[in-house]
Structure formats: C-alpha cells, structure tokens
Design a protein that fits this description.
Length: 116
C-alpha cells in the first residue's frame, strides 16, 4: 500500500483525472468531493466558480491500475445533456453553463433551452 507521500510523489501506476479536465470536465463535481472529504477541515475551500483555495490545492481521482489510460469526454448531444442534468438533479441550463465546451451544437441547445 502506498503512503500519502508516495501518492503525492506519483509513485502509483495508473492515472489521476481531475474535475475540470478533459476526462471529467464538470467542475461542480468537486462540491460532492469536498463534502465527502470534509475538505474545509483541512483549510481547502471552493470559490463560486469551483476553483480551489488556497491556489496550491489540488484534487483528483486516483485510479491505480497499470493499464489505466487517460481519456477525454467528446461532444455530447442535447439528449445526453438532458440525461446528465436529470441524473445530477440540476436544471439543464445550469449544467449547460458548466460543460458548454462539450456540447455538440451549443447554439441549438441554447435556443432550445431558452424556448422552454
């Protein structure tokens, strides 16, 4: 088993995707992670835009397997956006703002969302 210092020194075999990066682009998932870990007890907080403070703070998901590889979320369609928003129990408009760069036809989604 690796120690905390081993993890920090990246002595594991695997990947460490982080919220807000290509594999996990939705920054708002950090809110759940911070609640789960009670991160504020360690002095780490989230800003309104889900940036971590102090600025030197980092977070990620450690996936320790020698065959683990990084991946990137591709473009998603309106049906996937609506499904994801439903699973998050958040309004489509809110989810769209957080992951807009991953929506296949942003203009069509914006028009459709605005016309509700």
């Amino acid at each position: 088993m690796l120690t905390a210092n081993d993890l920090i020194a990246e002595k594991y075999r695997g990947i460490r995707p982080a919220f807000g990066y290509p594999a996990c682009p939705d920054h708002t998932e950090k809110i759940k992670l911070f609640d789960l870990l009670a991160a504020e007890r360690a002095g780490i907080k989230l800003t309104e835009s889900c940036a971590m403070t102090p600025a030197a703070s980092v977070s990620g998901l450690y996936l320790s397997h020698p065959q683990a590889r990084y991946f990137m979320l591709g473009r998603i369609g309106r049906d996937q956006l609506e499904d994801y928003a439903g699973r998050k129990r958040r309004p489509v408009e809110e989810v769209q703002r957080w992951i807009s760069e991953h929506i296949e036809d942003r203009d069509a989604v914006a028009v459709s969302v605005d016309s509700r």
